[in-house]
Design a protein that fits this description.
Blueprint: H1 2-13, H2 17-26, H3 38-49, H4 57-68, H5 73-85, H6 95-103, H7 108-125, H8 130-136, H9 143-151, H10 162-171, H11 178-192, H12 196-204, H13 211-217
């Protein structure tokens, strides 16, 4: 794909192996890195997208998957940024691709961006997709899909379906996984900016929440 070829040319020319090593170490050696920090990477992204032809939804998904097939994490970040930029254009047809990205080479850095800035707006635009979020939050599901379901309303503010969020948090409150416990606390902390009383009440009536989730939920209250 021409866009991904241009991306590799531009990012590749900016690679810095000395920076790549500590970036990889920070991510627990899970991914290779080119060594491009976030600020210059965003500038390079603008260069890649400058004068680029508009992509169809299918082409956007193909480009994201092509980026994901590359080993260096910066390419995955580019895909997340591209999908975030085009989130309003996406339809439910994109959800299988998003699911693939969330469950392939998963870690908090890409999953959280996809959850809050792509899956969230998509569900808000197509409310029937809440049933898919319910499926992702169901017992036995991949934990990164669970985290996505918990976090997808992160930017909804007053439009948050708190009953649904509370159900997700309650269902997974006993889960020992750090990233689920953190997601529960983070989602509640964000909603506390809108309705602090509801979050205080939820925490008070759910003694099974982990200390991490409680600490995060009440952090700013």
């Amino acid at each position: 794909m021409q866009l991904v070829d241009r991306l590799q040319d531009v990012y590749g020319a900016a690679a810095d192996p000395e920076r790549a090593a500590p970036m990889r170490a920070y991510m627990r050696d899970r991914f290779a890195f080119l060594g491009i920090p976030s600020t210059p990477r965003r500038e390079l992204t603008r260069e890649v997208l400058r004068d680029a032809p508009a992509l169809t939804e299918s082409s956007l998904c193909d480009a994201a998957l092509a980026c994901w097939a590359l080993p260096e994490r910066e390419y995955h970040y580019f895909a997340c940024d591209l999908l975030r930029r085009e989130a309003r254009r996406l339809t439910p047809e994109a959800l299988p691709t998003l699911r693939t990205l969330i469950t392939t080479k998963p870690w908090w850095d890409t999953v959280d961006t996809l959850a809050a800035h792509t899956v969230g707006p998509l569900v808000a635009a197509h409310p029937f997709l809440v049933s898919t979020m319910d499926q992702w939050a169901a017992p036995g599901t991949d934990l990164w899909l669970v985290r996505t379901a918990i976090l997808h309303q992160l930017r909804y503010r007053r439009n948050t379906d708190f009953n649904r969020l509370a159900d997700y948090c309650d269902s997974w409150s006993a889960e020992p996984d750090f990233f689920i416990r953190k997601a529960i606390g983070w989602s509640l902390r964000e909603y506390a900016k809108t309705d602090p009383a509801a979050v205080r009440a939820f925490v008070a009536t759910h003694p099974g929440l982990s200390p991490l989730s409680v600490r995060e939920a009440l952090k700013n209250l």
